Amino acid sequence: MSLVVEGARKEFVARRGARVLALDGVDLEAKPGELLVVVGPSGSGKSTLLRAVAGLESLDAGRVLIDDRDVTGVPAGRRDVALVFQEAALFPHLRVAANIGIGERARGTRRREVETRVREVARALDLEPLLGRMPDELSGGERQRVALARAMVRSPRVCLLDEPLASVDTELRLRMRAEIRAVQRSFGVPMVHVTHDQAEAMALGDRVAVMAAGRVLQCDTPAEVYARPATAAVARSFGPLPMNLLPAADGVILGVRPERLRVCREGRGRPGSVVAVEPSGEECLVRVLPDGAEQDLLARVPWADAPHPGERVVLAWRPEDEHRFDAA
Ligand code: ADP
To answer: What GO CC annotations are associated with the protein (predicted)?
Structure first.
């Protein structure tokens, strides 16, 4: 089972005639059993991409292939694609089992068959003890799991998740990430998970596609995108903190991650003044304005090494922690 998107282009004409290129030539592939995370800021085209794969949005150009079959013109109902939204809307008057099976029942599958399938999926997702409950007897996380089960019960060829964890708290989000991975492992379908949350993309994705303004800037493993961002834009947008960028000579931009920038009291490096110190868990975020620079740089340092605002410091980094990008 696989998903391929080729040269997807979609333009919206807004009310006053303004044009928005929501997808500007997107190529993407989710391999069998792969969890691909599409990450990008709001408005970068993530939802449009998912909706196009699901068949809820037509493309101006490009193709969508599922299991090597061109489904570009195929209506949503005949694509075998499951789509899970942020708001796991369950039917409040139906028990969990009925909620999971309702789509299949609506498609005319026989009751016995649906019941068997619901039980199989519930077992895989550890939902068996909850099958008899009503939605208002479930926690937020359990509701999300039921929504996932409802998506998987149809044996989709591709499963799409649109910010499914956006509205849940941190603790639950961590647990739900594990759930999503478990679903993926037990069903082996390619999953495309859309989020604006960098940490989620890093934690969850077998690969991540970094999107901005309707384009995929880079698509690779999280470790690779973190270690070798393809462009300055990726470096700014992917990682726990945006990478520091410093203009260098000849149209080259230097980049150093805040977690690799050292703030020293003395020694060789770039002198500057501490502008701000902000606690961040075990560590501090320190802003330093290098002498003669317009833009301050961010460093993440242990509490014990944190300087005071106004202090004179020297910024240093190891050559291997330096990235280089074209200014263009
Ligand atoms: P994301 O999911 O990354 O937030 P979207 O795919 O929702 O981004 O939107 C991409 C761009 O397309 C945005 O600028 C958005 O305003 C625009 N857009 C999305 N849907 C429509 C629509 N139906 N009509 C007009 N513009 C739209």
So the answer is: ATP-binding cassette (ABC) transporter complex, substrate-binding subunit-containing
Q: How far apart are CA 271 and CA 260, in angstroms?
A: 17
Task: Look up the CATH number of the domain holding residue 305.
Answer: 2.40.50.140
- 210 touches 216 (CB < 8 A): yes
Q: Atom 5 of ligand 1 has which residue's CA nearest to it?
A: 45
pLDDT for position 248 = 84
pTM: 0.87
20 within a domain of the structure (yes/no): yes
Overall number of domains in the chain: 2
User: Ligand 1 within 6 A of 42 CB?
Assistant: yes
pLDDT digits (tens, 9 = 90+) for 227-272: 999 999 999 989 889 999 998 888 899 999 999 999 999 999 999 9
In sequence order, the 6+-apart residues with CB closer than 8 A to the CB of 69 are none
Q: Note the ipTM here.
A: 0.98
Same domain, 169 and 36: yes
CB 46 within 8 A of CB 209: no
Do residues 208 and 219 lie in contact, with contact meaning Cβ atoms separated by under 8 Å?
yes
What single letter denotes the amino acid at residue 159? C
Q: Do 74 and 210 have their domain in common?
A: yes
Select from 20, 42, 50 the residue to mutate for testing ligand 1; criterion: most ligand atoms less than 8 Å from CB. Answer: 20
